[in-house]
Design a protein that fits this description.
Length: 206
């Protein structure tokens, strides 16, 4: 597993969350942002670290969205759409602008998802995220937040390590208690980085 120079020692990609920061060439990135920035491995790190990244690049499926997606029906799960493949692994098939990921290589995978959500109007509302494998919720993949302020974004982060067979499908779903809840690419207040996404997913073979 690759390790990268961080502000506080070394952070393994496998154990780092989306909000743990990497210090790279004078800028601070989360592990997700580092991979979702397509030129990062080529231009933003030393040649030795970039070489280490490329060694395991095919193990990583990195996909994100920058567009907003609103809750269309309250208290009902709906598929989250991911628009852009920043890094494509031969172990996975994900047509851009869809929500389904299909595995083509059996193994144990670290699946890390972050969804940036806000509510636009009204009183307190809640939103939840979970990951499905072959249509069933993966145990431990559910997380939810209650939003008390309008137009203030906060991330819901879920992560699982799961054995996934070739031919199996993954997708992420969101739900909310009001149609005023939506994913958003607004930067997080106090974030170290200006990289803005509404959702992202890293799928790494361990």
């Amino acid at each position: 597993m690759n390790e990268f120079v961080a502000r506080k020692g070394l952070i393994s990609l496998q154990s780092a969350s989306f909000e743990e920061a990497l210090w790279v060439s004078g800028s601070i990135y989360s592990p997700a942002e580092a991979f979702l920035t397509s030129s990062w491995a080529e231009n933003s790190v030393t040649a030795s670290v970039a070489g280490a990244v490329k060694t395991d690049y095919n193990k990583l499926q990195a996909t994100f969205a920058t567009s907003s997606q609103s809750i269309t029906s309250t208290n009902t799960w709906q598929e989250l759409i991911f628009t852009t493949n920043s890094n494509t692994s031969s172990y996975w098939v994900h047509p851009e602008n869809t929500g389904q990921f299909t595995c083509s290589n059996s193994g144990i995978y670290d699946v890390d998802v972050s969804v940036r959500i806000q509510k636009t109007t009204g009183g307190n509302q809640s939103a939840g995220v979970h990951i499905l494998k072959n249509g069933a919720e993966i145990t431990g993949s559910y997380s939810a937040i209650t939003y008390t302020s309008n137009n203030v974004a906060s991330d819901i982060h879920v992560r699982v390590i799961e054995h996934i067979e070739s031919g199996s499908s993954l997708k992420v779903e969101i739900a909310g208690t009001a149609t005023t809840i939506q994913t958003t690419a607004f930067p997080i207040i106090g974030s170290f980085s200006s990289f803005s996404y509404s959702s992202n997913i890293l799928i790494m073979k361990t």
